[in-house]
Amino acid sequence: MNASSWAMRAWLALRAAGYEFDEELVDIRKPQRFGNLARIGKLSPAASVPVLDTGRTVIYDSIAIMEFANDVCNGALLPTDAEARAHARSVAAWQHAGLSSICHRISFESAFYPVKRAFSPTERAGCERLFSHYEALLARYSGPFLFGAISLADFMHVPTVIRLCRHGADLTRWPRARSWTDTLLHHTLVVEWMREADTLAPVWLEDYLPGGAWPAAPAA
Ligand SMILES: N[C@@H](CCC(=O)N[C@@H](CS)C(=O)NCC(=O)O)C(=O)O
């Protein structure tokens, strides 16, 4: 729960859809990661988490699980207008297909570190690009979520918001995005996940600090 942003996204969408499922936590810390993912590989060709087994079908990618969540609640998690829906899917796909390269060393795992480092200039520029985009979406669709009502696009971006906000991202220039991040971070499902994730031992990633030295990190 403090290591897989993909699992969190799928979980948020399924819970928001009211889909009932049993959870099985998979420990993806090394070295047990390899054996545990090999076990997942027996039911899913991707051998990754998250994976949803409906009893009839194994759905093994977060975006497919999220689309399934939207389907089981009759499309309530995407806009009704076809163009807005395609736009929301673009925002979700952007995250899924590569947005994690923005501030990639500020990983989801690092959101749970007791000491945070400051953003580098490149990371600060990445945050600006991202928050300007959120601000524009919130202006276009009038908030309070990216496409008006809460949608898969918001759930897809929750872990990114968490990792950047927990590193003290300054949102003063983007008031709509600031209020959106506040709303998201206080969403009952996000609070439920984070409450448990915050109790777990942090998963240290060596590339968090330049040179990999830990824990002598400067406070952010
Ligand atoms: N595209 C996949 C990515 C899932 C993914 O990368 N999960 C990681 C854990 S956060 C994993 O299980 N990786 C397997 C591995 O490293 O072999 C999805 O969206 O579900």
How would you sum up this structure, described in words?
Pfam families: GST_N_2. This is Glutathione S-transferase family protein. Residues 81-203 form the GST C-terminal domain. GO terms for molecular function: glutathione transferase activity; maleylacetoacetate isomerase activity. The protein is an all-alpha fold and 220 residues long. It folds into 2 domains: 5-72, Glutaredoxin; 82-208, Glutathione S-transferase Yfyf (Class Pi), Chain A, domain 2. 47% of the residues lie in helices and 2% in strands. It contains 8 helices and 2 strands. The protein has helices at 5-16, 32-40, 62-72, 82-97, 121-140, 152-165, 175-185, 188-197; strands spanning 52-53, 58-59. The chain has a two-stranded antiparallel sheet with strand order 1-2. Glutathione (GSH) binds at residues 4, 6, 28, 37, 47-50, 61-63, 96. Glutathione binds at residues 4, 6, 28, 37, 47-50, 61-63, 96.
List the helices and strands and how they pair.
Layout: H1 5-16, H2 32-40, E1 52-53, E2 58-59, H3 62-72, H4 82-97, H5 121-140, H6 152-165, H7 175-185, H8 188-197
Antiparallel strand pairs: 1-2
This protein binds glutathione.
Glutathione is lined by residues 4, 6, 28, 37, 47-50, 61-63, 96.
| Cα-to-Cα separation, first versus last residue | 24 Å
The CATH architecture of the largest domain can be named as Up-down Bundle
CATH topology label of the largest domain: Glutathione S-transferase Yfyf (Class Pi), Chain A, domain 2
Please count the beta strands (DSSP E, at least 2 residues each).
2
SS class: mainly alpha
Major pleated sheet = 2 strands, antiparallel
Strand and helix order: HHEEHHHHHH
Q: What hetero molecules are in the model?
A: glutathione
Domain GST N-terminal: 1-77
Protein name: Glutathione S-transferase family protein
Domain GST C-terminal: 81-203
GO molecular function: glutathione transferase activity; maleylacetoacetate isomerase activity
